[in-house]
Amino acid sequence: MTTLILLAVVLGLGYRITTPEDRERLLAQFLETVKHTRKVAGQKRLESEPFREMLRKRTRFSVVTPALIALNVIVFIGMLRGAGALTDPETLVAWGASFGPKTTNPQWWRIVASMFVHNGFLQLAINMCALAQVGMLLERLVGRPTVVAVYMMSGIFAALVSLSSYPIGISFGASGAIFGIWGLFAAVLAWNVFQPDAPPVDPEDVIDEAAEPFIKIPLMVARRLTPMFVIFVLYNLVNDALPFSAELTGFVVGLVGGLILTKSANESRTPGPLVAAVGAVAFVVALACAVPLRGIADVRPEMASIVALEDQTSHVYQTAADQFRRGRLTAEGLAGVIEQTIMPKLQAADAHLKSLTRVPAENQPLVADAQEYVKLRSESWHLRAEGLRKAAAPTVRKVSRTDRESDESWRMRTESQYRGNLAMLGKAEGAERASLAALDRVKSAEQK
Predict the structure, then answer these.
(1) DSSP conformation letters of 230-279
(2) How far apart are the first and last CA of the chain?
(3) 355-387 pLDDT per residue, tens
(4) Rounded CA gap, 375 and 373, in Å?
């Protein structure tokens, strides 16, 4: 919408600053350019028509590529009509985007589902245009099973690389799978270099009408596909739906798979048994790569419970402290509330944090801050409970040889006990402040 508004503004300004003669001249130049472009396009289409005719003879209709495009579009329309913004991570995950703690615990279906999730019309349009241009050509040339196998293999390996690189990131989009299709196209072009032209036909030979035609991709056709590939690559370089390392992996998988599957693509479509064998090997390799990624921990609920724990324990203490100030609870009773109600909650939280395994590297500092908070907060509550007990305990007056000596000794011990209580409460206050500083770091990370 912003682009359209800017375009309208530019056109309006251009209209205002030009004379009628200038506008008439520019319009004539524009129409001449369009006419020339259509003429050149028509000539190129006529030149490539024999190649396209041979493709249609080998595979009459493209089915797989339109089906993949339709599925992506249907999911996008469903997201548009559903609740939540397209760019909202919760919406993306709800529609099947890959998120490490969910994908590996164990919602592995997200590896495939994430290939059909897009967060914007531009991303969808560029991906589908890139798929349509090369997908329908390859589907007729190498066969539908090959295109399906390469698309799925490339998308799966791209999603696994994204999961390994960013275990707590959200990955989605068809770009990894489409890069694989372009890798397949690169493999076909590579074999074209080493394949001879069509063998000569002996006029005395009987022509088999059912035989598949010999096809070699003209250089002109490859050049016509280049601009779309460049746009596709540049867009995905700046788009963060998938890391570029994952998309590059998809391209390499498509290239390697294509080199194996399309050696004889000039003469015939790839045999089904070969496609099945390569697909089975790729599935086993993908499974082996996925095993080490199992059980990625999602620490977000744990961090939320730690933040809530501070509110809960503070509320418990404030309620008991109000009763203490009103004389309804003794200092011993207030210390008991700390030790019997508050401390067990912190001990349970500490045990739970220590039991977390497979915490992603990005979240390990966050877990360390949470553990520091629990440790320091437990220390502050323990010191507060001890201070309450000592403050409430009377100083025992010992009888000495003289009353004066007894009074002096009792006074000194009372002052010493008072200073000790203040020091203990000061340590409790210091530990509490340090713990709350660690908790603030947890809150800040949680809000990002």
Answers:
(1) HHHHHHHHH--SS-HHHHHHHHHHHHHHHHHH-TTTTTSPPPHHHHHHHH
(2) 28
(3) 888 888 888 899 999 999 999 999 999 888 888
(4) 5
